[in-house]
Amino acid sequence: MTASVSFELPKHGSVICFDFGEKRIGIAVGDLHIKMAHPLSVIDTEVNEKRFDAIQDLITEHRPIMFVVGMPSYDNGGEHPVAKLARKFAGRIGGRFNIRVVLVDERLSSAAAATALDEAGVHGKRQKLYMDQVAAQQILQGFFNDPKIIQ
């Protein structure tokens, strides 16, 4: 279920967004004041402790006041099998780092990322290097443009 944000968003502060995947996690960052998302990096490991170490480094550098985690779903709105893992990831990072986590629909973020990369002149196999972080950027920008959360 998608609903409007059920809490008041702060007017300032950085937000880190995660495009969760079983093998890689795309990362984007943005600011609530200017509402502009930027692709940042990819965590390219399946080892949870290494993932958490990388997230701690991001927290130290960007000092986020909130995390956004994309929830995978099918075009028809049905929940993708990876959504259960994304929810678990969201719960773990929220609890571990004591930072509010917002779950948002990431439907079509990969297609939007591919289009953005095409427009930037990044084509073919080169897109794979940037796809996850640009997908995270698309998720975060969508949240900034229309902050709806998944309950």
Written overview of the protein:
By secondary structure, the chain is an alpha/beta fold. The chain contains 4 helices and 7 strands; from the N terminus they run ββββαβαβααβ. The strands form 2 sheets. It has a 5-stranded mixed β-sheet with strand order 4-3-2-5-6, sandwiched between helices. The chain has a two-stranded antiparallel ribbon with strand order 1-7. Helix 3 packs across helix 4.
Secondary-structure blueprint of this entry?
Elements lengths: L1 E3 L9 E6 L5 E7 L4 E8 L4 H15 L1 E8 L10 H16 L2 E6 L3 H11 L6 H20 L2 E3 L1
Keywords:
151 residues, 4 helices, globular, alpha/beta, two-stranded antiparallel ribbon
In short:
By secondary structure, this protein is of the alpha/beta class.
Helix content: 40-55%
Largest sheet, strands/sense/barrel: 5 strands, mixed
Please, what is the average pLDDT?
82
Q: Enumerate the strands of the largest sheet in spatial order, edge to edge or round the barrel.
A: 4-3-2-5-6
Please state the structural category.
alpha/beta
Note the beta-strand portion. 25-35%
Count of alpha and pi helical runs: 4
Query: Can you count the beta strands?
Result: 7
Query: How does the overall form come out from the CA principal axes?
Result: globular
Spatial gap, N to C terminus: 6 Å
What is the ordering of alpha helices and beta strands?
EEEEHEHEHHE
Poorly predicted regions are none
Radius of gyration: 14 Å
